[in-house]
Each structure stands twice: as C-alpha cells, then as structure tokens.
Amino acid sequence: MQKNFVLSTTDRHSKARRGQLTTAHGVIDTPAFMPIGTQGTVKAVTPRELRELDAQIILGNTYHLFVRPGLDVIKHFGGLHNFMNWDGPILTDSGGYQIFSLAKLRKITDGGVEFQNHIDGARAFISPEIAMEIQAALGGDIAMALDECVPYPCEYDYAAQSAELTTRWAKRCLEWKRRNGETAKRGLADSPDRRIADSMLFGIVQGATFDDLRKQSAQAIVDLDFDGYAIGGVSVGEPEEEMMRAVESAEPFLPRDKSRYAMGLGTPPQLLEMIARGMDMFDCVLPTRLARNGTAFTTTGTLNLKNAQFALDKSPIEENCACDACREFSRGYIRHLIKAEEILGLRLITLHNLHSYLNLMKRARTEIESGTFDQFRKAFVAGYKTRDPMMVE
Amino acid sequence: MQKNFVLSTTDRHSKARRGQLTTAHGVIDTPAFMPIGTQGTVKAVTPRELRELDAQIILGNTYHLFVRPGLDVIKHFGGLHNFMNWDGPILTDSGGYQIFSLAKLRKITDGGVEFQNHIDGARAFISPEIAMEIQAALGGDIAMALDECVPYPCEYDYAAQSAELTTRWAKRCLEWKRRNGETAKRGLADSPDRRIADSMLFGIVQGATFDDLRKQSAQAIVDLDFDGYAIGGVSVGEPEEEMMRAVESAEPFLPRDKSRYAMGLGTPPQLLEMIARGMDMFDCVLPTRLARNGTAFTTTGTLNLKNAQFALDKSPIEENCACDACREFSRGYIRHLIKAEEILGLRLITLHNLHSYLNLMKRARTEIESGTFDQFRKAFVAGYKTRDPMMVE
User: Fold this and answer.
1) Do A336 and B40 touch (CB under 8 A)?
2) Any CB–CB contact under 8 A between B51 and chain A?
3) How many angstroms separate the CA atoms of B222 and B172, rounded?
4) Burial class (CB in 10 A: 0-12, 13-18, 19+), A123
5) ipTM, 2 decimals?
6) Residue B230 and residue B200: Cα distance in Å, rounded?
C-alpha cells in the first residue's frame, strides 16, 4: 500500500499530531473535522459554501444513501461526488452504525446483518463484502470496514464476542478490497470501479468500555494492516471519562504513520482532548443538528439563540468570528428568524457552527506547529462553560 | 413631489412599458418582480443570494413584522434594511391584506380594523395612520396606503362601500405622510424618521370584479395624487378573466408617469399578460412557496420534481438556465433532496424559481426595448403548458 499519511509535527507535551492525508480528491490537513453529509448533502449547506468554509473532507452515510436514493441511482450518476457535486475528499462509513441505531429487526450472524430499513421497512442484508461493494459504488476516497457497534452499557462477554466479530469482518473487508482493487486497476481510469483501487480502507477498533478488549481489538485490527484506523463505539451514551479511556486504551497500539479517526464525536473541548490523545480525524452531527434547534457554538460554550435575552442584541453570534453569519447578521435578527421558524435562521447558525468546528481544527493545527497546543487546549477547555454537549443554556 | 418614475419605452402593440423607478436605496428597472420577504427574509434565501439573482427590490410584510418580532425590535435595529442586512429597495405592504386573510375576529370601522393576530391571538388595532407609523418604523422605500381587500365573490353593495372606505383611508395615509414627512425633513439625515420624507407612498385601487367600481376607485385614488398606484383585490380566487378585467377597467385612469403595481400575482404567463395591460411591478409567493413543495418553474410550465420520472435525470431543472441550481445540480439529485426532505432541495428550487421570475422580467424589459414584446408574450403564453398556477404536474 502507498503511503497516504505524512506526519509533520508531534507535540512534546501531549500526543497531538499535525499531519496530511493525501486522497484521490485532495489533501486533508489533520487534525481535521469532517462535516456530515448524511443523505448526500451536509444539511442546509451547498458544496460551494463548504468550500468557502474550507471544509477539506466530508462524510457520506452509506446506510442512508443505500436506503434512499439507492445504489442504482448513485451508480447512474457516476458516484457520490458527481451526484452531489462535491469534488473534495469523501469518507463513507460502513453503514454499520446506522443499522444498529436506526434500522429495525436486526439479526446479526457471522455472515452479516439482516435488517429492515427505517424508511419503508424493506428488508436488506449487509455483509462485510456488500458494505464494501456499496462503498465502492458511492466512490468515496476513504471507506470504512463493517463493524458491530455495541450500545452502552454492554456486558463484557457480548463486547468481547462482538469485537472478535468486528475483526473477522474487518479481515473480509480488506480481502474484498485487495481482490477487487487489483481487478479495478485494469478498469477505466475515471470509473467508480477504478476508484476502488485508489481509495483507502480504514479498520475500526471496538471493545466497548473495557480496557483489555480495546487493547486486543486495536492489536488485532492493526495486525490486518489498514490505510488508517478508527476508534468506534465511542460517544454512544457513556460518560465522558469512559470515552477518553476507551481511546487511551487503544491508542498506544495504533501505528504512528497512519491516520487515526475518533468516530462520531464530540463537543469542541472533547475534540481538543481527543487531539491531545493522538486522534487526527473527527465527525459529529452536533454543529449541524444543534443549529437546527437554534443553538450556536462559540469558543466559550453554546448559546441558545431562542432565548429572549438576544432579542435586541446587535452583536454577532461571536465577536471577531470570520464566518458570513457573524460578518453580516446580528444575534437579534437570527433569534427572530429561529423564533419565526425561517430556514435562513438555521442556515446561518449551521454556517457559523461548521466554521466554528473547522476553525477550531485550524487553530489546533497552528498551535501544534508552534509547540503550544497543550497550553491552548487547557485554556480552551477551562474557558468553555457548557459541560453537557446537548445542554442548551 | 419629486419625479421618481421615468418611462423610457412604451410598446406600440400593447400597453407594455419600460421604465425606471428611483428610490432612496437604488433604481428599479420595470417591469420588475419583487421577491417576498414576509418575516424579514425571503424564505430560505440570503441577501447575498438576492443580489446575485439581480433582485432589485424586495417586499416586506408589515402585518407579519408587526406581530413578530414587533416594532420595538425593528426600531431598535434602525429599520428593516439594517435588521435583515438588505441595502436595496424595500416595499412594505400596509398590512391590510394579511389582516383580512390571516388575522381573526376582525372588526372594521371607519376608524380602522381591530383584530387578533394569528400567532398568539393578541388584540391589535390598525388605522390608516397607524399603518403609516408602522411602515415608517420599518423604513422601507415604498409604503402602501391601508386598504380593505374584499374576498371573492363579493356583493356589489359591499364592494362599493368598501372601495369608498379604501379611498377615505388612502386620503388619511397621504395626509399622515405629508404631515410627518415635513417634520421628518428637519430630523437626522439617516434616521428612520427622516426616511419617511424620502420614501414613496402608493395608493391602492379596489372595486372587486365590478368594472364601474374599479373605474370609480381608480379615479378617486388618482385624484389624491400618490407616488404610484397599485391594483389590489386581484388574485384572491377569482377566475383569470375577471382578474384581467379588473386591471383593464382601472388602468386607463392611472397616470402614465407613475408606476403601476399589480398586487399578489401571478404565474409567469399572467405576469406577461399584466405587463401587456400596462402594469410595471409584481409580487408573488408562488416561486418561493411552490419551491418548498418541490415544484420548479420553467419557461414551458411547472415541473414537480418529486415525480419518479426525474430520479435518473441528469439534466438541470431547465436547459440553458444560468442559475446556480441549474449550473451545478441535476434534476435527479434535487429530486432525491426533496424526497429526503433535505433543506438544500428547497433552497435550490427556490433559487431557480426566483431566477426564473426575475429573468422573465429582464427578458420582458429587453423585448419592450426591442419593440418585440407582444410577439414574445404571445409565444411564451402559447408555449406554457401549465394552466392552473397551483397545478402540480
């Protein structure tokens, strides 16, 4: 496998890393935040706006796209990049997490997962190989191995069996990729099939909240030799300390020269804590989801813009913020829009929140380069007033 | 009163007119379409997008803004332009139409209208003078006199009395403006109060579907000498021929050197028919409202993008359309977004529909200048396949 990830700086006071991940659609500076494009769009945002926000990679949800519009449609349009008109890097998840959190009547066997989708209840079956086929059809730059994501809390025995199943599935995904990647190299240069050969595959570490299982899972997954590694099964309802520990247990076993992706989290302080623990990539629904509820992220915590206190407030969501929402509109105006259920209100908060997350990563990169990341992290976390990520002040 | 409207070309084969209306916030080329910014935003669109669409003027709804966020808020922000960050011309309606269509428990007397708003049921009273005060606080460039808009169908006697009431109210609005405009001229240069002096006031012709009442109303309103004239009480459910006749009955009594605004309509063919009957300005919710339902306007009719036939369609909403939605996205992708209830779907159709309406006006202006408007109108109307404006193919 070619070398996709280059580490340029490592922090002396923490495990923070500054790197670059090269994909077929461009380079990603890490630490990186990936806005989530669940159904073929980052909610309420155009690709042009994503470019203006300096988003370097977005995430596409395999399960959602498989259910609707369906693979035939995406294939017809030549893959997800063409379909949604986004020419930057895309990471596709395996669909596993959504099958376990959204779909109904799941039946898990060694072969794969049988489920009924949450839209029309149609039955479907996804195996590690099918998850790879679907992701190949989507044509993303980074695919994820199919895993089982167990809920919190989870019994030790089930977590142990499940992590082993995830390892067996991971191996099958890798085998599928090696087999089909070779075939694809002989295909047309720009076909989605050909893109399988150029794409990367990341393995996922599981093991719930058990240190030894996290360690075993990390070792087993790393032994298989993926292009990058993700920590899955975190941010599924466990206390924040458990989440940190799950990452700390697995991290020492991850190779330095591959990117590390902490899946599905978190708040701004959590991202900095994860960077300090050696994580490089993140995805999270919070900036877009909370925006739709009128909640804005700032460097000192969240603001619920529905609150009456903002009605006459002429200041922007955040002073000195360079996003379009802050340069052009007041809190009072945005509050009015949200109260009146105007789409422009959630558009503006979504822009601000994505800018806020992306800018935090940019800042983290600069601080790592300057050797001041750990001071920055401590000051940021200490100054951040909102503790509960879902708390609306 | 200063001369705000300059007529540059009149069509030899119809009553179509090409003109320019100068306001405190810029020049409007007529015929002009005004996107509707009901609650301080054109639904789902930013001011920047409106500028990119070449929208030269937008409409603000006095009733909606009076109810929410309320006048104190708008005054605190220095008027509607500042509040919503739109520096182009704004026309505010009088609030009358919404009181008659949305509010509850209305009681109309010569003094004004008492009503309960549709949001929290709070009682309020609007007189012609109060309608002017509210519009002065909003600080738009063109204010409308308070009128009574009768429903369709309407008895002759009620329509006659109502048109006379509208005339008495129109006179009081004009008197209020003369009185307060003089005072305002001595005020601060950029205060909202001062803007009353710079703003225009349009009178509204009523008379329901009765030719003699339309004629009498037009004469009475024109005698009062407004900055421009509107035809109200049209597009309230009457057959299209009645709507055309209402305008034809009033138009000969409107002065050539003032702008004419046909309120609250209509489909693209109706706009061209209205231009051919001597109308200059239009506002209509159709392009934004139908967009939210997945319906796109084209030069040959509407498309319901929810339809399965578009699932694999790689073409844009409309071939050769210069809007961002058509330059960057396919019907198939937009259909997926609408089916998946993604906000980006209605954003893209809204952009296209507004572009479509604004571009039709641009085309009409060019055709009038070239002396070919009437041919253009006939060909466009003949080629337009959707007859019912609300019809979803």
Assistant:
1) yes
2) no
3) 14
4) exposed
5) 0.96
6) 13
